[in-house]
Amino acid sequence: MIAILKNGTTEEQTAHLVSWLKHMNLDVHVSKGAEMTVLGLIGDTSRVDMELLSSLEIVSSVKRVSEPFKQANRKFHPNDSIIQVGNVKIGGGYFAMIAGPCSVESEEQIIEVAQAVKESGANILRGGAFKPRTSPYAFQGMKEAGIQLLLKAKEATGLPIVTEIMNISALDLFADVDIIQVGARNMQNFDLLKELGKTNKPILLKRGLANTLQELLMSAEYIMSEGNENVILCERGIRTFETYTRNTLDLSAVSVLHELSHLPVVVDPSHATGKSRLVPPMAMAAAAAGADGIMVEVHNNPSCALCDGAQSLTPAQFDELNHRVQKIREAIV
Ligand code: PEP
Ligand code: MN
User: Fold this and answer.
1) pLDDT value at residue 211
2) Binding pocket residue ranges, ligand 1, CB within 6 Å
3) 53 Cα–ligand 2 center, Å
4) What do you get for the CA distance between the two ends of the chain, in Å?
5) How far apart are CA 1 and CA 24, in angstroms?
6) All structural domains of the chain
7) Which pLDDT tens digit goes with each residue over 223-241?
8) Contacts of residue 12, Cβ cutoff 8 Å, sequence gap at least 6
9) Euclidean distance between CA atoms 210 and 289, whole angstroms
10) Distance, CA of 202 to CA of 81 (rounded, Å)
11) With bands split at pLDDT 50, 70 and 90, how would you rate the model's confidence at 47?
């Protein structure tokens, strides 16, 4: 349920109403925008007398929110959320250009790629240390050592870092990681989501291979309902009958998620297509669709990459892509 307050309602009046609602065992979310203040009521709202609430002097309207996701819902928070990552902002007009290798492979590799992508305009460095691989015989990532190398690359370049967590028991290793990624395969690992909700780290939540947008938002809700509102959504392609591309990039997800939610939406054209030549056009299309960021895989020597070489751009290709994406962004403002 949401209650929209009238313009001119004072802080004191708002606080009074919030405390009254909290006495009914509800969680109250206050979203103060330039135009209006919205109170989002979470919990068992069946006991709230809508007539009574609507009749209050300071209340302009009261509505039930039918969607099962509440805190992620734009109705609760009409303005775009802006997620702060170090000195980088994502959402509400701020664009994340996230680039780096699929996996951290060595110190030279990650530092070289980090410096190159920074030079080309990336503002966040990606790199997998814990890798969810289909085959148990494939390279599983450098794990703790990989995180240490990412931290070295962060120190060398000043870029904030994003890397994937697979198991909550590894959380301590992520203390200096700027954004924790939840990969597609863990999108519905609800225990993991709940634990990440107890931290205050920004979480990059990737859409599952066969999950609907509502399921993605419900997973965001798991994190937010535990208190962590710093969620960034990521469209990375879904399974369809098409086999030519690794997945099918669902670009309409950008608009739908922006309609339904205030959370920023990033697009990953690398895992969506699986082919490096398809990455630049899909990155540009994502920017044109209004994505709040792009995440692309970049490797200094894609043909020798331990993971996902076929979809990785060279630093020179990334440089070119970045210019083109920036041009698209300028064109759509
Ligand atoms: C990744 O970004 O490294 C990754 C494994 O992606 P996804 O979870 O989308 O497959
Ligand atoms: Mn990858």
Assistant:
1) 98
2) 102, 128, 132, 164, 183-185, 206, 236, 271
3) 50
4) 34
5) 13
6) 2-63 (3.30.70.1140), 83-332 (3.20.20.70)
7) 999 999 999 999 999 999 9
8) none
9) 22
10) 12
11) confident
